[in-house]
Amino acid sequence: MYLKSINPDNGEIVREFEEFHWDEIDTIIEKNSTVFKTWKKTSFSERAVYLKKVAQVLRTKSEGLAFNITLEMGKSIVEARAEIEKCAWVCEYYADNAEDFLKKEPIASDYSESYVSFHPMGSILGIMPWNFPFWQVFRFAAPALMAGNTVVLKHSSNVPGCALAIEKLFEEAGVPENVFNVLLVTNRKVEKIILDKRIKGIALTGSARVGKEVAAIAGKKLKKCVLELGGSDPYLILEDADVEKAVELCVEGRLVNAGQSCIGAKRFIVVDSVYDAFESAFVAKMRAVKMGDPFDESNQIGPLARSNQREDLHMQVMNSVDKGAKLLCGGFIPEDMQGSYYPGTVLSDVQAGMAAYQEELFGPVAALIKVKDEAEAIQVANDTNYGLGAGVFTKDVERGRRIADECLEAGCCFVNDYVKSDPRLPFGGIKNSGFGRELSHYGIKEFMNIKTIAIK
Fold first, then answer.
1. Active site residue 167
2. Residues of the chain with pLDDT > 70: what percent?
3. Catalytic residue among 79, 228, 359, 446
4. Domain covering 2-229+431-455 assigned CATH 3.40.605.10 in the classification
5. What would the pLDDT profile of 409-426 be if each residue is shown by its tens digit?
6. Residue 345 half-sphere exposure, CB side, CA atoms within 13 Å?
7. Helix H or strand E encompassing 348
8. Which of 250, 262, 407, 412 does the annotation list as catalytic?
9. Alpha helices in 333-396 (DSSP H)
């Protein structure tokens, strides 16, 4: 069995990698769990030196690493460079803050002394997706490693080159051998790896379907999971919004990574009084999007990562049109382009029961929904099985704060901006968008034994 690195710009196979056999997998997991015994005893300052060195190597090799991302999954080279820089940032963030996040917490009680201490669990399995092939890995690995855990990575099968490049980074940074390991395996071997007693926790970023499967498997052994799954993020554009600014940010939020983002802006819920102005400006911007070779810095979006993903997205668009949605732009497979390209697409008159309303659209497709007022906008926003991100646009900041804080059912709610991940802010969702949190001080505590100590 081989893992294939395929250039989505032209469909050509770049390289093939032989899948690891079970004896190789067993050896890697054994070495990773064994080195944990010494890695957990290193000081925070020692680990910080290693993580800052990783950040340094990321920046030094940024151009080549960004090239790998664009070649394997089609991300714009400009966005790929930004992804590498963000990985360096998260390494430095946890290098600087992990010790403070995990210091003992005294708690008043009836005992003469009582406190909480934090202790790493062991080998943590990361099951990561292709859409942000470096950032998703570092988002979970940087805090896990700074906390004293070791990491085993099962990356998506279509980005094996990125997975091995990440492993090489840790080696070049001088991180002790086997603290971070890659398993080149397909999904058929994942269940047995999850059930391996040497694996102590699982971090997964992926679809809701896969998240449920992984959680069920991990549940057989009562293993801790952190699941960051899909999203159908709603954006409320209220009657007092700055429509021009809202359009600019909503289009940008929809087109991040060619729309292939769990927290990408997807459903745009617009109050009737400003709907026509929003729709007109939104469609004009989406029509103007330049699509093409992701290595050409003038192009805003490149190909989708896989051809089958494009087919699925197009079926969702056609399903919605068949049920009454209006196609305002895009919505076709370009016949004059090699690779898995799909143009910026806008659907209006989107209603419940349509794929564009109910499902995650993982590509540059926007769903416009007209509502009469704030109350209906909130109702429609929450009428989803997902709950990852949400946004609200209004000139009244206190109104936006109230809606974001008290009304929207999502893990990340932004006012007058689109949702972004930030090492300083906790990240995660509710409902079918998963559970647990990454980033901030919350994320580093997920794979720790939060131990109560009471002394009389």
1. no
2. 100
3. 228
4. yes
5. 999 999 999 999 999 999
6. 31
7. strand 345-348
8. 262
9. 355-358, 374-382
